[in-house]
Amino acid sequence: MGVVPNISGCAQGRLAFRRITQGFRLRSLRRDGISLRSSPLWARCCSRGRRRALLATETALALRVHAEAMESTANTLARTASNFSHNSASIHGVVRVSASDVIGVEVLPPLIARLRESHPQITIELVLSNRVQDLLHREADIAVRMTTPVQEQLIARRVGRIELGLHASTSYLARHGTPENSEDLLKHALIGFDQDTPFIRKALEKFPQLSRNAFSMRTDSDVAQLNLIRAGAGIGICQVQLANGSVPLQRLLPNFFSFYLDTWIVMHEDLRNSLCCKLVFDVLAKGLEEYIGQKQAQWNRHG
């Protein structure tokens, strides 16, 4: 067995690690190439012109998912190797952060900007998706989640509860009036979801009036919903902290509609000794706690 070089995160270590993984891949491809000779990956396709195209065969298409998995694993290994630094004064590495659309667009950018000012050698990969990224298989290193983590292999910190409320722009209310009750609300142009999700089903148990058919505008993008509200298109649901953003929003019927999201920041336990990941985890956790605990106007000034 060969000696594995130190891959603490320095440039030399990353280069050595890259050579090791490339060597593994090349040996694997050479070995598997023997069996693939009888099953070519590409077939020539004649066209009407002089050029001949190459088309993927069934073998190639069947191997695609495995090749993508290999690439994802290699990227995860390289990212993890770059994250382990022994010197806190020169923390550097690549950290992949997953968050929902709204959190990733509205909340995390000022936190990441401040982090990069103090630690410019840290690279952040920001993945925006309402789908829960699989931290156990390292689709991300750190995730901001609106559901309570259940896996034992995760390090989790609860940062608070984000309140959701009904909001509209002042321009919309000036044109269409302010609803006084839930019956008035249903007479307005409402903005909401398109596809049903477990979160939506849970919310509908408490607010059955706000079903899919009640919405004049439907989208599963929370960012699109927020910007429709800001544009004066109608009344919709957004995080209360965002009401004092670039376009002031007025909250409506708080006694009728109020919904809370438990918010967590989670990380795989294998990264507990990574100074880089631990730093990013702590910075994001503190920033999210500040965001939840204060008004958006104050949040923007601090950013």
Brief description of this entry?
By secondary structure, this protein is α/β, with parallel strands linked by helices. 41% of the residues lie in helices and 22% in strands.
Please render the helix and strand layout as text.
Layout: H1 11-36, E1 42-46, E2 52-56, H2 58-83, E3 93-99, H3 101-118, E4 122-128, E5 142-145, E6 154-169, H4 170-176, H5 182-185, E7 191-192, H6 198-206, E8 217-218, H7 222-230, E9 236-239, E10 249-252, E11 259-268, H8 275-293, H9 296-302
Parallel strand pairs: 3-4, 3-5, 7-8
Antiparallel strand pairs: 1-2, 5-11, 6-9, 6-10, 6-11
Report on this structure:
About 40% of the residues lie in helices and about 20% in strands. It has about 300 residues and is an alpha/beta fold. It folds into 3 domains: about 55 residues, no CATH class; about 120 residues, Periplasmic binding protein-like II (D-Maltodextrin-Binding Protein, domain 2, 3-Layer(aba) Sandwich), CATH 3.40.190.10; about 100 residues, Periplasmic binding protein-like II (D-Maltodextrin-Binding Protein, domain 2, 3-Layer(aba) Sandwich). Strands 3, 4, 5, 6, 9, 10 and 11 form a 7-stranded mixed beta sheet that branches. A two-stranded antiparallel sheet has the order 1-2. A two-stranded parallel sheet has the order 7-8. The longest helix has 26 residues. The chain is globular.
Q: Determine and state the CATH class of the largest domain.
A: Alpha Beta
Radius of gyration: 25 Å
Q: Structural class of the helix and strand makeup?
A: alpha/beta
Task: Report how far apart the termini are.
Answer: 51 Å
Query: How many DSSP helices?
Result: 9
Portion in helices: 40-55%
Q: Strand content of the residues, in percent?
A: 15-25%
InterPro entries: LysR-type_TF_proteobact-type, LysR_subst-bd
Pfam families: LysR_substrate
Protein name: Transcriptional regulator lysR family
GO molecular function: DNA-binding transcription factor activity; sequence-specific DNA binding
